[in-house]
Amino acid sequence: MLAIDVQDLRKQFNVQKNREGLSGALKDLFKREYNQITAVKDISFQIPQGEICGYIGENGAGKSTTIKMLTGILVPTSGHIKVNGFVPFKEREKFVKGIGVVFGQRSQLWWDIGVIESFQLLRKVYRVPEDEFRKRLDELVERLQLGELLNRPVRKLSLGQRMRCELVASLLHNPSILFLDEPTIGLDIVVKTEIRDFLMKINREHGTTILLTTHDLQDIEALCSRVIMLDDGRIIYDGGLDELKSRWSKGREIHFQFAEHPQLDNLRVLTDGLGVSWSQDNELTATMFLPHAVNVSDALARVVGGGAGIRDIKIVETNTDEIVREIYQSGSASSEATKKLGNVVALDKEAHQGNE
Amino acid sequence: MNSAYLDLIRIRFLMMLAYRVNYYSGIIIYAINIGAYYFLWEAIFGEQTVMGGFTLAQMTTYVAVSWMARAFYFNNLDREIASEIRDGSVAIQFIRPYSYLLVKMMQGFGEGIFRLLLFMVPGLIIVCLLFPVTLPTEPGVWVLYFVMLVFSFLINSQINILTGLFAFFVENNEGMLRMKRVLVDLFSGVVVPISFFPGWLAVTMKWLPFQAITYLPSSVFTGRTAGDEALRVLGVQVIWFLVLIIPILLVWRQARYRLFVQGG
C-alpha cells in the first residue's frame, strides 16, 4: 500500500502587495492588491510504506509548503492527496493520529512545563494506553539517552537536547508515517549522527515511512534510498541518490602533486586531444578535470609518460554537495535541468502568475 | 471529555501559580481603581439618594463586585491567539488530534480558576474591609451569581477568541484588540452601569452581548435584579453564549482555508 499518494498538487498564496510611500499606504488602506504566488506547481509522487525519502531543494522551492499540505496544515489549491488512506485536511483529527511531525525550526513541546509532563499530555491527547506509553517511552528514552532531561522544563534544553525530545514527542503514539522538516538544522555533528542512526533503526524495526526535508545532504546520503528534488515548485528529480550522482556528475578530478612547479601549458600539450582541462591550485599542485567519457588510465598514462616528476595522485569523484549545488544554480533554467535528467515533467502548464 | 483538556486546565493553572507574585500588585491596582470610582460616585451622588436606579450603597457594591468579576473573567486569549497566528506557531496545533479553540478555552479556564482563587476572592475580601460594600444575604443570590460569573467568563472568552482569530484576515490586529478591550470595559458596564447610558445607547446595549459580561451579573449581586427577572437575565447570558458559538465557528472555518503559515 502507498503511504503517500500525491497527484497534481498545487498551492497558491495571495500575498499582500505593499505600495510605496504615503499615497501607496493610503491606496492600500482602501484597495488591497495581491500578488498570487504559486509555491507548489502540480507535483505528483508516490511513496510506498516503509521508505525513507529525502525531499530537497533550495530555500523557497516549496518543500515546507508540501509538507504542510501533507500533514493537513494547509489546504491545497488543487490536486489530490492521500496520506495513510486519508485526505489530510478533511479528516484532520483522525488523520493526525497516524502521523508524527517534527519541525526543526519550531518547537511543538510546551515551553514552560517539564519534558515528561509534555509527554504525559501528549499521551492523553493521543489517547495512548498507559502501559503502551510506558513501554514506548522507556525504549525511546534509552535510545536517545534522555534520562536526566526528563524533568527539565523545555525552555532550559539545548537545541540538540530539544530536538531529541521533539523526536520522542512525535513518536509516542507510534505513527506509521513520520514527517521531518529540517530535523538536523543547527545541530552539531554528534547529535546529527545520533539522530540519523535513530531514524534508521525506527525505520527498520517499525517500518515507519519517513519523509524528510533537509539542506544537509549528508542526511540524505546516510538515510535515504530515494530523493525528490524540488525547484521553483516543480519536481526536477525523483529517484535514487546514486542515479542522481551518476547522471549529474560530469566527471572526476585528478589532483597531481609535482616535484617542481608545473607548467600548465606543457601539461595541456601532453593531454592534447583527450578533452580534459587543467587548473593550477598552487605552487606544486595542479588539477585535471576528466569527463566521464575519458578513460582514467589513458589520461594518467599521458601525464606520467610526460616525464614530469609526480609526488602524489588523488582521484576525486564529484561529491553530492557539488552536484546539488550545480543543479540548484542551473535550477533557474529548470527546463534545461529537466531535459538533462530526461524526466517527463509537465512544463509550464501555466505561465508564472503575478510577478514573483 | 478527553482528559487532555482537563490536563490543559491544570497545566495553565500551575503555570499561573508560578507567576503569582505578578498578581499581588494587580490586587492593589484593582483596589485603587475601586476606591477612585467609589469617591467619584460619592461626589456625583452628593445630596441625591437614587441615580439611574442605584442607591449609593448599591453603586459601591456594584463597582466593587464588577471590578472583582473583571479580575476573574479577564484573560489574554485574544493576544495569545493573535500572536500564535502571526508567528505561525498555530500550525503546530493542526497536527494534533484536538480542537485548537477548545484548547484555548481550556487554557483560559485554567487561568480563570487561578484568577478566581488568588485574585478575585482575596481582592473582594480586602475591598469589603476598605469600602462600605453590602453583600447579599440570600444564599440563592450567591449561587445564581456564581453561575452567572461562569457565563461572564465564557462570553468574554468567546469575544476574545473571535477578535484574536481576526489575525488570520488582517496582518496586524493590534489596534483592533485594543479597541475591543476599551469597548468591553465600557459597554459591559464596568466603568459606568448601563442604566446611566443615554436612552438610545442603553437600548442598543440590550441587543449586544457586552452587558452579559458585567452589568447583568452585578445587577443580580447588588439585588437590583431579583426573582424571575434574575432568572431571565441568566437566560440572556445562556442565549448569548450559544449565539456566539456561531460566528466563532464560521470565522474558524474561513480561517482554515486562509491559513498562511509564515516562513513557508
From TrEMBL, chain A:
It comes from the Bacteria. GO terms for molecular function: ATP binding. CDD domains: ABC_NatA_like. Keywords: ATP-binding, Nucleotide-binding, Transport. The keyword Plastid does not apply. Residues 24-257 form the ABC transporter domain. The keyword Lipid metabolism does not apply. It holds the Pfam family ABC_tran. This is ABC transporter ATP-binding protein. It comes from Paenibacillus oenotherae.
TrEMBL record, chain B:
The keyword Membrane applies. The chain crosses the membrane at residues 21-41, 53-73, 113-135, 141-170, 182-201, 230-252. Keywords: Membrane, Transmembrane, Transmembrane helix. Pfam families: ABC2_membrane_6. The keyword Transmembrane applies. PANTHER family: SLR1174 PROTEIN (PTHR36832:SF1), SLR1174 PROTEIN-RELATED (PTHR36832). This is ABC-2 family transporter protein.
